[in-house]
């Protein structure tokens, strides 16, 4: 009986040992892995995605029904006379061109193409003026300097402007802005537009209560790609050519790797050169599902602050890099403090 009690005691002792020693050991292993995840040291078995770093300005158009007349342009025709066919046809600034020869007009490029292929034949134009639909005829003239048929018209697409590339994939698809393009009613515009080479030529400095702006020019004759998607996470599409962009491959960071602290943003200003500027990630929300505004950033670079005052319109999409990895994109500015703004995680942009 005494021997049986001794064996039972040993069994209970080893049971207690495994409960008090083995279990804490397992917890210690879990904490070690968790710490590695927190520090960004845990390496997944799957290969990390890499892209080409953005930071370059592009002209973007999101097509809609009709284009707005914003200017009338006189030019010298091949007969040596100064003319403006659109003015002669009675068009005014503020008119919205809906159709030409019964062809719906969705962008300014289409007008140029129709005029140039007209061979001087009259074009029937349907346009909107103060909620009234009107028609007129325009007689294109061949410009002496270029031998191209023109109608002397400056137009603005339904939604167009300047933004910054965040990344380019190896299949030439791209992501930009980190926020949607919306119409005057605040609704996201259906995606169907173009991408154009762009040059920044002026900076309006931001200040408290007033957002600044990068101003630039892009030509509809220098189309380099197409827009295919416009949503909460940015404007996306693909390039036909990217020879003009010096490409630098970079790894995309996972969200758990992003931490508050020093980082960098890349953008191109009026000097025409893509530059790196120091910023601080003030807040990095550990989002578990795709959402916008996951980052709060603070511009700290003195050179950038001196030129722009902080984050300005046109910088949307400027890539954020931390520890040599693409973290996300700058998307919004705080109006009351232009040195601060929101950012979108690159991981969400790549999934959308």
Q: How does this model look, in words?
A:
The chain has 352 residues and is α+β, with helices and mostly antiparallel strands. The chain has two domains: 47-62 and 161-352, Trypsin-like serine proteases (Thrombin, subunit H, Beta Barrel); 65-156, PDZ domain (Pdz3 Domain). It contains five helices and 24 strands. It has helices at 2-39, 85-88, 108-116, 302-308, 346-351; strands at 50-53, 57-62, 67-72, 75-76, 82-83, 96-100, 103-104, 123-129, 132-138, 141-142, 149-150, 153-156, 159-168, 173-176, 193-204, 213-231, 234-239, 249-252, 261-268, 274-284, 295-299, 319-322, 325-334, 337-345. The strands form four sheets. Strands 1, 2, 13, 14, 15, 16, 17, 18, 19, 20, 21, 22, 23 and 24 form a 14-stranded mixed beta sheet that branches. Strands 3, 6, 7, 8, 9 and 12 form a six-stranded antiparallel beta sheet that branches. A hairpin with a 5-residue loop joins strand 4 (75-76) and strand 5 (82-83). It is elongated and about 65 Å long. Mean pLDDT is 85; it is low at 1-46.
């Amino acid at each position: 009986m005494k021997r049986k009690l001794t064996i039972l005691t040993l069994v209970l002792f080893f049971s207690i040992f495994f409960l008090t020693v083995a279990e804490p050991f397992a917890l210690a292993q879990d904490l070690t892995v968790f710490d590695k995840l927190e520090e960004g040291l845990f390496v997944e078995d799957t290969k990390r995605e890499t892209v080409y770093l953005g930071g370059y300005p592009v002209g973007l158009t999101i097509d809609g029904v009709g284009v707005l007349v914003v200017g009338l342009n006189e030019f010298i025709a091949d007969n040596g006379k100064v003319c403006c066919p659109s003015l002669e046809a009675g068009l005014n600034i503020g008119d919205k061109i809906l159709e030409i020869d019964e062809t719906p007009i969705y962008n300014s490029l289409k007008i140029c193409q129709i005029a140039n292929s007209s061979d001087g034949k009259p074009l029937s134009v349907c346009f909107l003026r103060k909620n009234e639909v009107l028609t007129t005829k325009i007689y294109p003239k061949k410009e002496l300097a270029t031998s191209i048929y023109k109608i002397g018209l400056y137009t603005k697409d339904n939604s167009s402007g300047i933004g910054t590339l965040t990344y380019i994939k190896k299949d030439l698809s791209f992501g930009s802005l980190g926020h949607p393009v919306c119409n005057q009613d605040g609704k996201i515009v259906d995606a169907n537009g173009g991408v154009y080479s762009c040059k920044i030529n002026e900076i309006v400095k931001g200040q408290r209560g007033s957002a600044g702006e990068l101003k630039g020019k892009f030509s509809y004759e220098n189309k380099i790609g197409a827009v295919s998607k416009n949503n909460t996470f940015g404007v996306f599409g693909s390039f036909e050519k990217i020879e003009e962009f010096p490409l630098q491959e970079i790894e995309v960071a996972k969200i758990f790797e992003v931490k508050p602290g020093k980082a960098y943003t890349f953008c191109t200003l009026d000097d025409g050169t893509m530059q790196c500027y120091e910023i601080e990630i003030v807040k990095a929300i550990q989002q578990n599902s795709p959402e916008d505004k996951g980052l709060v950033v603070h511009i700290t670079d003195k050179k950038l602050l001196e030129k722009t005052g902080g984050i300005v319109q046109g910088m949307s999409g400027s890539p954020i890099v931390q520890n040599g990895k693409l973290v996300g994109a700058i998307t919004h500015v705080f109006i009351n403090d232009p040195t601060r703004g929101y950012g979108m995680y690159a991981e969400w942009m790549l999934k959308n």
